[in-house]
Amino acid sequence: MNEDKKTLALFQCEFNRSLEEDFAQIITERSDVRLFFVNENQAFTDGRNIIVDPAWRGLFADVPALIETEQYLKLDHSISNDRWLALRMITRAQNIHEALHIIYSNFPGGAARDPRGATKVRKLVLSLIANIIEDAFIEAAGCSVYDNLERFLLWNRVAMCCANIPSQGTIERAFSALPKQEERETSQRVLIADYLEYMARFLLYPMVKQSDPDEALATYVERTKRLFSDGCMCGAADKRYLYTQQIFDIIEPLLTEDENVSSERLELMLPGMKTHSPLSSSIKTWDSAGRNAAVTRRLFTDENGRPIVFDRLNKLIVSELVRFQEEKEAAIKIVTYPGTFDKISGVGFDCAKIHEGIIIEVAKPRINLNLKRAYQNIYNRYHINISSYNARFSQLLKGTVDLREEKQLFGAGIASKRLGDVKKRYWYRTVKGTGVPDIALLLMIDGSGSMSGERRECAIISSVILHEVLCKNNIAHAIVEHRAIYDEPTLRHNILVDFNASDEEKYNLLTLQADEGTREGLSLFWAEKYLLNNVCENRIIIMISDGVPAHGIDSDACYLPPVSIKDTANAVRKISKRGTQIIAIALDSPAEDSCYRALTEIYPQVISCTELKRLTGQLLELISELLQ
Question: Does 184 have pLDDT greater than 80?
Fold first, then answer.
């Protein structure tokens, strides 16, 4: 049980929630749809927000029920043998069901405005009838309109039927643990509850063999069966509710005005009862009209009304499970990744003695998936700029470059890795072609306290845009925040985006902070060594700064101008001679150029940026010029 709880906690991470939300937005074609995980044994939607429960009634750990589902659908036992895959199937199936409601159902439902619902019990019965029809309809629409949703809808409906709560689940005994009709008190309240349960099984669970209805219900069942069947095949939401009204008018004699309808059994069959409940106040209801659909079949029948053959579903679900397994590995890798932390002594570089005793703390922060939405907001806000920069950047980068052709019988040199080629194709030759030059770019961002406010915000936005453009153009790059801690012999380098980074690392760009000072001389030596790990012909360091280096430990070990300026200039000169190009961007206020003038004493190439909104453009123009 503890392992099941651990698996559930791991599964309900932001990575998986985000995957499901992205899926819901794609299928509904609405970017405003939001999805949330709960542990409340229910799944529902208010027309915009989707609530799902991966752990619905413990089904993911209910091996007998999962096996029964697999056997019924003629699947192998991949799902019952893997709690994570079971959670993914449950979650995706619930997500699809609620997303289909958003697409095809009216919000709020018709029962909320129907004058027939003059009392609480009448309103509840109207909504339950409508919910049964809507559930059957959206599943029929999912089968008729989409070619890849049926497998999940079938699995979900059969799994709910086989759920091992409250009894060992089999198709025939799925709901038998609850009180049988003859054992319950005969009253109008019981009759309406039994009627709704009977019709829910009839429409949603055709695999369950039902006995004949109670004699008191037989007439109502026969008179309304056709209405339920026709209603769930009606493609227009407004017209669909007319069937609910007709059914209600027929069964109205079963109602009493002072009793609630017991929904214990219905909740097993309709876990999303809140979707159309006019009595629910848990989340806001959004006004929206359901889309029309041409429904040609039901969930468990083919185009001709015959029961479907499940053999063909096996390959389809297996293909999905392969993808789910890949997502599982990616999620676990990210969620369990603790980040990295290392300490390097300043004496490991050929730097000045002033850096002796300084420790460089190098960290790759744990990926914060909670920042995804904030990152996406920035991306959405600047996506036009990103597209524009990307188009311009792609054109600027096109040029003549040297390309290496291997597996030649003769050429300019020998590729040692091919010396074992029996055909002796171990030569390579260099030819001219059009492409992106071989480059490794390192953006070093000043993380000192003076970068707070607007400068920090612009540095974050520029980093996001720059990262997106460079990724689209397949240019190797890293983005690092650097600072020196006052009163401590410590440098901190936070690698926000590493070379060959996973896509999720980019969210850490939003963690850029402004505090303490800088010790750029030593930071540059570290940056050079970090860059050398990426063997490229062109190595470029771009330093974004708003002032000269400053770091104080005690009165005898101050790293302040003019000492800091001279030391950093020496570092720049050494590193440049060894083949790494260094350029500084000075963030100045519009009224003065003090930062620019100070940095020209350190860097041979300095670009002034007095308008922060132009920082991104200047960065991209600079990079494209360097690659010409």
Answer: no
Out of 41-50, 300-309, 450-459, 569-578, least confident range: 300-309
Residue among 593, 588, 585, 627 nearest 462 (CA): 585
Q: Which segment of 87-101, 182-196, 312-326, 377-391 scores lowest on mean pLDDT?
A: 182-196
C-alpha dihedral, 594 to 599 to 600 to 604, nearest 10°: -160
Selection from 84, 116, 32 nearest residue 326 by Cα: 84
- H or E element at residue 373: helix 372-397
β-pairing verdict for 476-485 and 551-552:
unpaired
The overall longest dimension of the chain from CA atoms, in Å, is 100
- Give the DSSP letter string of 307-362: BPPTHHHHHHHHHHHHHHHHHHHHHHHHHT---EEEEEEGGGSS--GGGTT-EEEE
How far is Cα 149 from Cα 96, in angstroms, rounded to an integer?
7
Contacts of residue 185, defined as CB under 8 A and 6 or more positions apart, other chains included, come to: none
Q: Which pLDDT does position 181 carry in this prediction?
A: 44
pLDDT of residue 132: 93
Reduced to 3 states, what is the DSSP secondary structure of residue 262?
A: coil
Residue whose tokens read 């890798």: 333
pTM of the prediction? 0.74
Helices 83-104 and 150-162 cross at an angle (nearest 10°) of: 110
Asked if residue 193 lies in contact with residue 270, where contact means CB atoms within 8 angstroms, the answer is no
- Mapped onto helix, strand or coil, the DSSP state of residue 94 is helix
Nearest to 361 by CA among 218, 442, 481: 481
Q: Give the end-to-end CA distance of the chain in Å, rounded to a whole number.
A: 61
Distance CA 568, CA 549 (A): 8
Can you tell me the distance from the alpha carbon of 25 to that of 48, in angstroms, rounded to the nearest whole number? Answer: 10
Distance in angstroms (rounded) separating the CA atoms of residues 468 and 505: 12
- 204 vs 155: CA distance, rounded Å: 13
How much is the mean pLDDT over the chain?
Answer: 84
Q: Residue 111 in contact with residue 278, Cβ under 8 Å?
A: yes
Strands 399-408 and 427-435: antiparallel
What is the pairing mode between strands 413-414 and 359-364?
Answer: unpaired
Helix (H) or strand (E) holding 484: strand 476-485
143 Cβ neighbours under 8 A, 6+ residues apart: 149, 150, 153, 297, 298, 299
Q: Is the Cβ–Cβ distance between 17 and 36 less than 8 Å?
A: yes
Q: How far from the centroid of its chain's Cα atoms is residue 397's Cα?
A: 32
Please name the residues in contact with 33: beta carbons below 8 A apart, sequence gap of 6 or more.
21, 24, 25, 48, 49, 50, 99, 102
Asked whether residue 69 carries a pLDDT value surpassing 70, the answer given is yes
pLDDT tens column, 79-103: 999 999 999 999 999 999 999 999 9
Please answer whether residues 470 and 490 qualify as being in contact, where contact means their C-beta atoms are separated by less than 8 angstroms.
Answer: no
- For the purposes of burial, counting CB atoms within 10 Å of the CB of 348, is it exposed (0-12), middle (13-18) or buried (19 or more)? exposed
pLDDT in tens, 233-257: 999 998 999 999 999 999 999 887 6
Q: What are the angstrom distances between the C-alpha of 399 and each of 194, 230, 473, 628?
A: 76, 65, 14, 7
Q: How far apart are CA 177 and CA 147, in angstroms?
A: 36
Tell me how far apart the alpha carbons of residues 519 and 560 are, in angstroms, rounded to a whole number: 9
Q: Judge contact between 582 and 442, C-beta under 8 A.
A: no
